[in-house]
Amino acid sequence: MLEAVGRAPGTARGLPLEFWRHDDHRTWIDAFMELAAQLQQSDLAEDELPRGYGLIAHLFDWEAQCQYSGWHAFSNREAEVGRIIRAYEAVGLDGEAAALGRALTVWRDSGGDYDATSAAYRELTHPCSVDLDRLEYLAAHFVDHADALLYERDA
Fold first, then answer.
1. Please, what sign has the CA dihedral across residues 40, 44, 45, 47?
2. Stretch 39-62: mean pLDDT, rounded?
3. H helical segments located in the chain
4. Residue 15 burial (C-beta neighbours within 10 Å; 0-12, 13-18, 19+)
5. pTM higher than 0.70, yes or no?
6. Strand, helix or coil for residue 20
């Protein structure tokens, strides 16, 4: 799977297998996005992998869903939204978790009112409310905690 990330059209050429150890931080977001897509498409059981892979799958897939579908991502990933919110908490983005929880409530209560959901999300701004800031934070988090998150399985 990691080899596939390095071969993907959207990632930089010459990435090492452990791309999070690459010295060019501009490659990290694309590589983590591709890894999330690979994980989502795989039949690997999340609980059989080191914890970070499940977090990457949920968080970067969610970010991709939001980029392409906006708040309709709630419908696209309805079964996973709770895990996504908990994943944001696990990486220290409690503000994003709270804003998503609020937006999800409004999305469900309003029958999918896009404008109301956006307004609810914006009520709880935080340092990573902007997509690019959040993606950079996420990539840096997994790079900084790679040894604990990407190599060791939780007991």
1. negative
2. 93
3. 2-7, 28-41, 51-69, 73-76, 81-90, 94-109, 114-122, 131-144, 146
4. buried
5. yes
6. helix
On the question of pLDDT at 120 being above 80, the answer is: yes
Is residue 9 scored above 80 in pLDDT? no
Distance CA 154, CA 52 (A): 10
Provide the residue count of the chain: 155
CB of 36 closer than 8 Å to CB of 56: yes
Dihedral, CA of residue 134, residue 55, residue 89 and residue 83, to nearest 10: 120
| Both tokens assigned to 121 | 């999300």
Judge whether 103 and 117 are in contact, CB under 8 Å.
Answer: yes
Euclidean distance between CA atoms 117 and 5, whole angstroms: 33
Return the pLDDT at 153. Answer: 64
3-state SS, residue 30: helix
Distance CA 155, CA 142 (A): 20
Q: Enter the tokens of residue 155.
A: 């007991």
CB neighbours (10 Å) of residue 133? 12
d(CA 83, CA 54): 10
Average pLDDT over residues 50-69: 96
